[in-house]
Hints:
Layout: H1 8-18, E1 23-25, E2 30-38, E3 47-55, E4 61-67, E5 71-81, E6 87-91, E7 95-97, E8 102-105, E9 110-117, E10 126-133, E11 138-146
Amino acid sequence: MKKIIMTGTLAALLTFGGFSVPALAGPVDVVVESAWSRASIGMNRPGAAYMTIRNTGDEPVTLIGLSTALAMMPEIHETKTNAEGVSSMSAAGEIAIAPGESVALEPGGLHAMLMRLQQPMTEGETFPLTLLFVDGGEVTVEVPILGIGARGPED
Ligand SMILES: [Cu+2]
């Protein structure tokens, strides 16, 4: 297989041109689209956030965790439904995204679980959610809070 090796200058220019969301640390060529979440009833139950995470770079990226002031224990979860139709969810671990590929966090699948909420999630507000990548890179996205019954960002 032929390997393309970029010079430092060219790689830096491409990386710079790839940013379309604020990246605070590390060169992560990731774009987050259609982020949304649902309002919570109080703080006793966890919240969840959904989005599409797109790798716009030339290298694989690996999502390893989440950080937000809204929740003490934010974690990437995956909901699975077995043959009997029973759903359960568990920590999804690391999520690798190949160059040009995207991963959808959506109801019934992968999601950002926001455990131990520090304040209620109120419809009409937003909160910052930081995605943590394996190389120390971070991407922070402002997540809109939709109504309790919302099924997606276009509702
Ligand atoms: Cu969950």
